[in-house]
Amino acid sequence: MTQPMRNPEIRCKHLFINNEWVNSASGKTFPIINPATGKKIADVQEGDKTDVDRAVTAARKAVEPGSVWRNMDASDRGRLLNRFADLIERDRLYLASLETFDSGRPFNDTYNTDLSMVIKCFRYYAGWTDKISGRTIPMDGEYLCYTRPEPVGVCGQILHWNFPLLMMTLKLAPALTCGNAVIIKPAEQTPLTALYTASLVKEAGFPAGVVNVIPGYGPTAGAGLSEHCDIDKIAFTGSSKVGQIISQAAARTNLKKTTLELSGRTPNVVFPDADMDRAVETCRNGLFLNMGQYSCTASRTYVHEDIYDTFVRKLVEKAKTWTVGDPFDSRTMCGPQVDQEQFDKVMSLIDSGIQSGAKVECGGRRQGSTGFYIQPTVFSGVTEDMRVGRDEIYGPVIQVIKFRTMDDVIERTNRASRGLAAGISTKSLDNVMTYSSHVRAGTIWVNSLNVFGAQTPIGGYRTSSNGKELGEYGLEEYSELKTVIIRTPTSM
Ligand code: ADP
After folding, report:
1. Using CA atoms, how far apart are residues 318 and 303, in angstroms rounded to an integer?
2. How far, in Å, from the CA of 220 to the mean position of ligand 1?
3. CA distances for 387 relative to 219, 350, 391, 392, angstroms
4. Which CATH number fits domain 15-262+464-482: 3.40.50.2300, 1.10.1410.40, 3.40.605.10, 3.30.70.3280?
5. How far apart (Å, rounded) are the C-alpha atoms in residues 104 and 339?
6. Cβ–Cβ under 8 Å, residues 454 and 120
7. Residue located nearest, by CA, to atom 1 of ligand 1
8. Cα(121)–Cα(418) distance, rounded to whole angstroms?
């Protein structure tokens, strides 16, 4: 078993602009806290609007017509992306350890799951660089018409803290594949892996200005990107509230394009014919993954009334085996919440569940006295009029809700305005077809939850998302389509 680096050296703490490490214009820094201990592990340079301006100038130069990046053969762009993936693979242990140190996500998961997916994604998109093509369209009249996809230009990418390096990859890989320049603002809680990866951008040989990283806070560095008139597109993952702010800023300034990945609150429905043990395990793993800090987590578990009591009993047994502790320990499945704010938010929602009459079947408390640990929690007797039955909890808290019929459960799951994903456990093909055709959600998992591939698009319906990430569809978000119409000589 691979042993983590428990105290990884923090090598990159500056802003990365135009392939150089620089101080922030203000000279300010901000602290990075280890969620497992609550102690500071580094001070990082704090970028703001002035630094965003500097990065935009560099990025614009990198994508302007005639630049090295713009003139590079598509296959050479692919070689650079593959080289970048090689370097990430070389430094996999360091990156996974750094991610665990910064975010509290268990090392087993950062090393085995996240880094595998990050490397696969860069390689997957590397293969696409020279396969992005337009079409010849047989239009009326004496014309030749063809389309050609072109880069959007300068893309701002505002990241969330839940899977820091993976979230960056979902945005950075397709953007580079299509030939854009990017300015990344990592979440203020977790900027370390994005910063280290920037050093690999330079080592891989990307031209200056193609990738820039500005750590800092949302209302300063983040708003600097969303309000900038020379940025062509913003991609964002985070809360719906901030998604709306970014959307408004984009519209108010230069109507830049936006791709938004927002809140989820995924329903997971268990029918009486499901393989019960598998459904219980899927439910537990699907929710407790990443301490519940994920919009796809199936926190609303709808269980048919005929199997409700048995399901809850079995789920509680399973939940108790979800080991909480030091994220560097190989036995740990549940590390700390990312910061004090998230910890307080989850604890207050647990409290509101108790106040509103839901039953805590297990967990419900803080674990230990240092760090931001919360016990894996199962609530039964939850209804949608309770706050825990409605709000996105973003913590290791499962709410088990009773349902009676297919129509009833479809109506209730669709009542929420979000529609990122949905799950169903059943052996019946009829159930699968009915549920998957009527539920308003971007992904439907059948007898599974949280399954992703570099090749498969994700992105929700309604208020959950705007645009898709991953797969071939993810490329569309980073291309402009140009139509060329040429008058042809009159035919004989
Ligand atoms: P959460 O509420 O889950 O902590 P947020 O939506 O607040 O997540 O944060 C996600 C990302 O959005 C972070 O990188 C954060 O700095 C950024 N952000 C927060 N506020 C703004 C804002 N007003 N403008 C642009 N970005 C912001």
Report:
1. 16
2. 10
3. 28, 10, 6, 9
4. 3.40.605.10
5. 9
6. yes
7. 239
8. 27
Answer whether 311's CB lies under 8 Å from 280's CB. yes
Query: Which atom of ligand 1 is nearest the CA belonging to 394?
Result: 3
Domains 15-262+464-482 and 267-453 alike in fold? no
Instruction: Tell me the domain boundaries of the chain.
Output: 15-262+464-482, 267-453
Does an H or E element contain 280, and which? helix 276-288
| CATH topology assigned to domain 267-453 | Aldehyde Dehydrogenase; Chain A, domain 2 (3.40.309)
| 22 contacts 114 by C-beta, under 8 angstroms | no
> Tokens representing 199?
């050093």
**pLDDT score for 251:** 97
**71 Cβ partners below 8 Å, 6+ apart?**
none
Give the ligand 1 atom nearest the CA of 242: 6
Across residues 41-51, what is the average pLDDT?
98
| Closest protein CA for atom 24 of ligand 1 | 223
Atom of ligand 1 nearest to the CA of 158: 14
How many angstroms does the Cα of residue 216 sit away from the middle of ligand 1? 10
47 CB under 6 A from ligand 1? no
Average pLDDT over residues 274-283: 97
For ligand 1, what atom is nearest to the CA of residue 217?
16
Does 246 sit in the ligand 1 pocket, CB within 6 Å?
yes
What pTM did the predictor assign?
A: 0.96
* Mean pLDDT value across the chain: 96
Q: H or E element: which one contains 69?
A: helix 68-71
Q: Which H or E run contains 388?
A: helix 387-390
Extended beta strands in 294-406, E state: 300-304, 359-362, 377-380, 397-403
What is the whole-number distance in angstroms between the Cα of residue 222 and the centre of ligand 1? 7
Tens digit of each residue's pLDDT (9 = 90 or more) over 67-102: 999 999 999 999 999 999 999 999 999 999 999 999
Beta-carbon contacts of residue 288 (< 8 Å; ≥ 6 apart): 319, 322, 333, 334, 376, 396, 398
